[in-house]
Amino acid sequence: MPTTKRRALILISSGRQLPLAAPVEVTSISTGFFLVEMAQVFKEFENDYEFTFATPDGNAPQLDINGMALSVQSIEKTGAKTLPMRMQQRRRSFDVSSFRQRHPELVARREQEVRLLERHIGRIPVSELLPNSEPELAEYRPELIRRLNKLPEGTFHSLQELVLRHRDPADPFTFADFDFIHAPGGHAPMVDFRDDPWLGETLHVARENDVTISLICHAPIAVTSTRQRVDAQGRPYLVSDNPFLAAPISTVPTIGERFALRFLYPRVPGKTTRLPYFVDVAIKEAGFTLATSPNISAPLLAYEPSVRLLTGNGPQAIDQQAAKLRSILTSTRTAQRTSDKQLSKTSS
């Protein structure tokens, strides 16, 4: 007899345009979420979990084509492989087929991730190519869009909807049914995860219902939203004593963003390119402590058990983060079973 699957909430930014502070003539660039930072969670948990999907506003998210670069699939080696693989694509002799043949394991991982996307998400838009997007991606994007366009659209709940359903005694929906929430990065969370009251309410309700929260790359900007909650009348209010402040936060560092703005796809060619803010700076200004490492390309996880918050610094950390999430959930269930047994003995 089949067992009932456990449940998890996948929270994705629906941001599609990333504002720029400079150059003034380019106000924004096409953006989205990084599949690599979500697919590994699907792979780790799909056999025993049912996924519910949400975005802050309930609109479908957009996949960032730049997160599909083969170098990103190298995970812990991404930092070392990104520039060399970009340089290979600048040669006059560059050929897409030969390039892919030289990296079969990375092509295979990307294909596995797309199949997970097809299985769990459905049809979503893909970001536009940017002037600094890799040539290999320019050939890959139309193929990817054709595949996604064959799929039915999935359902994405808004956070306001989920919170209101959780509060409604007549609605069976409850955050207590979720074991975990996972949110992937990419630049999109910079658009709609910062200082959002309904996101803050969601994270606090999740914490109060013992849900483990996993945020990676740019998604940890969501912790700034925990400074606010929403009352019964739908009015935001400031949290006077925020328990999430106990958590050290691992996220993409300013130095990594500066490197990307100078050498990688966010750069506007021939122009100094600046983001509206840096995620780690905004998190620190919100009163949080940053988890740091001298090696910005190495995986860095931070976990605070008092609020069940797990954060990671980018795609290089996703394999470790998915494994750590599994370990946390296993430990939590073991502790719960032990507690239930002790309670049962006491009551009998």
From TrEMBL:
UniProt xrefs under SUPFAM superfamilies: Class I glutamine amidotransferase-like
Q: What is this protein called?
A: DJ-1/PfpI family protein
